[in-house]
Specification:
The protein is α/β, with parallel strands linked by helices and about 500 residues long. The chain has 17 helices and 21 strands. The strands form 4 sheets. Strands 1, 2, 3, 4, 5, 18, 19, 20 and 21 form a 9-stranded mixed β-sheet that branches. The protein has a 6-stranded parallel β-sheet with strand order 9-10-11-12-13-17, with helices on both faces. It has a 3-stranded parallel β-sheet with strand order 6-7-8. Helix 8 links the parallel strand 12 and strand 13. The longest helix is centred in the N-terminal third of the chain and has 16 residues. The two termini are about 35 Å apart. The N terminus is likely disordered. The structure holds zinc ion. The site of zinc ion (ZN) has 5 residues, from loops.
């Protein structure tokens, strides 16, 4: 008999790890039950009563009183930079939240070379499992630059070829960021044509919609566009970080929900993810500038910001965008090259400069492109989305916003533990199995024999996000054990140095 990778076993069915007596919440939504969970190699091989079935393990952990659940799956983690670097590719901030699988390349920014990207990540070493989307914005920029132009037949053909190649290379689907330049310059028909390239691979269309507020087509128009891309492109449509952004659309979660329910009722697959914060995170320019001002790229923008002939129109559009987002006190600079800007609202910075908010914003944007937390959501809209069965948990974990280090524990606290919005079983399901199903992640997201051993163990009373808007990278508390493919990345509450994560491709 050959030795197992973990050494000689006493007998062939000896488990590597046995979690004894935990409160198992298996991800399917069924009620919590006390059971033992056994793992061997990279798989869960046993769920039941170990003693009565004579199960023995090389390592037995008494987890009575603790929850045993599938590792969380984050479909919207902005970790392209983290995974490309050696120091951060373990994704410790996600592991501390209990996230064992991330998808990235969202908002239209995913790489064209999916296969090469996945290979580099694996060579680098991963703490969590990771998969990637190909980005509409990236593809459009490659073919048409930052120009605000329609794609002609030749350009569209080139874009389709790039998307197809990325899908062949293992991408989970096409992401779009139609709010952002250059994605915003693409028509609905262009996006549909690209979605059709994703369909034969069973991919998903994942969209940061053209409008989450009242900027252009409006929130409801953007939801209809996303559904149309799904329907005419022949792919499941997934709305990223669903929200009602800004005073003009507060309370419109009910209309969004009605539109999605109607589409689902006629057989269109439409889903969404959500993070549990009242502030979104974006760039100061993305929040305030009209997209026409960004056409051509950064140099063109700076010229327009300083051109007296353009200033009146630019100022008028920015004033309206600031109103939509709740005014200068609702925009907090979270990260900037000039650290004197950080931790201050646009209102405070304007007062310091003795200037109006728009002038202050324009001066900052001439010099750099800081990140902001934009306080633009209502709790009632968050709660309304949270209970829909087609909504899953996501972090949208961009730098400078606490959601990257806190979204999952905060969602658990606010939707399931501290307020009775969702049962804990429903919360776990929408953070694991439901997400796996939406994106075609095989054999993960459920505590069941045969599934990969992505398993988290925690005391619900101790689970807590600690990241804040002024200290956004404080890791979360509460995970006692986190296993990825059977290896502990958190043991007894402490991070290990293991890198058992794998690159994932969609299962079809
Ligand atoms: Zn986004």
């Amino acid at each position: 008999m050959a030795a197992s990778p973990r050494g000689m076993s006493a007998q062939p069915d000896t488990l590597d790890v046995l979690l004894l007596g935990g409160r198992v919440i298996d991800g399917t939504g069924t009620p919590t039950r006390v059971a033992d969970v056994g793992m061997r190699g990279d798989r869960i091989v046993f769920v039941g009563t170990a003693a009565s079935e004579g199960r023995v393990a090389r390592r037995t952990l008494d987890v009575s009183g603790l929850v045993v659940a599938p590792g969380f799956i984050d479909p919207h983690a902005h970790v392209l930079l983290d995974l490309g670097a050696t120091g951060t590719s373990r994704l410790d901030g996600y592991l501390a939240q209990g996230v064992t699988t991330v998808l990235t390349g969202n908002d239209g920014g995913g790489p064209i070379d999916a296969a090469g990207t996945l290979a580099r990540w694996q060579a680098n070493g991963l703490g969590a499992n990771a998969g990637v989307f190909v980005g509409h914005g990236t593809v459009r920029q490659r073919v048409l630059g930052m120009r605000d132009v329609r794609a002609d037949a030749a350009a569209l053909d080139s874009m389709r070829t790039l998307v197809r190649g990325a899908m062949q290379g293992g991408a989970f689907g096409l992401s779009s960021g139609l709010y952002y330049a250059p994605g915003s310059y693409g028509s609905t028909d262009e996006v549909i044509a690209l979605a059709r390239e994703v369909a034969p691979f069973g991919g998903v269309y994942d969209t940061h919609m053209r409008d989450e507020s009242s900027y252009t087509v409006g929130l409801l128009g953007a939801v209809r566009e996303a559904i149309r891309v799904g329907e005419e492109g022949g792919v499941p449509a997934h709305i990223a970080h669903v929200k009602a952004l800004g005073v003009d659309v507060w309370g419109r979660s009910d209309s969004v929900i009605a539109i999605v329910r109607a589409a689902r009722a006629r057989g269109v697959t439409v889903t969404a993810d959500q993070y549990p914060y009242l502030a979104s995170g974006t760039g100061l320019g993305a929040a305030l500038l009209p997209r026409w001002a960004e056409a051509g790229g950064r140099d063109s923008l700076v010229r327009r910001l300083t051109d007296p002939a353009v200033a009146p129109r630019l100022r008028a559009d920015m004033t309206e965008n600031l109103r939509r987002r709740g005014g200068p006190a609702a925009l907090l600079i979270t990260s900037a090259r000039d650290s004197a800007l950080e931790g201050r609202t646009l209102e405070e910075l304007a007062a310091r400069e003795n200037a109006d908010a728009i002038t202050t914003a324009m001066r900052i944007l001439e010099r750099e492109a800081p990140s902001v937390a934009s306080f633009n959501m209502q709790q009632s809209d968050l709660d309304a989305f949270a209970v829909e069965p087609w909504v899953v948990t996501g972090s949208d974990g961009s730098g400078g916003h606490p959601r990257k280090f806190g979204a999952f524990p905060k969602a658990m606290r606010e939707f399931a533990l501290d307020r009775p919005v969702l049962s804990i079983e429903a919360f776990i399901a929408r953070s694991s199995a439901n997400t796996a199903r939406i994106f075609g992640i095989a054999d993960r997201g459920v505590i069941a024999a045969g599934h990969f051993a992505d398993v988290i163990v925690f005391d619900p009373a101790a689970v807590r996000d600690r990241s804040t808007y002024t200290d956004p990278e404080r890791p979360a508390d509460g995970m006692r054990w986190v296993f990825v493919n059977g290896d502990a990345v958190i043991a007894e509450g402490a991070l290990t140095s293991a890198r058992p994560g794998r690159t994932l491709r969609p299962a079809r």
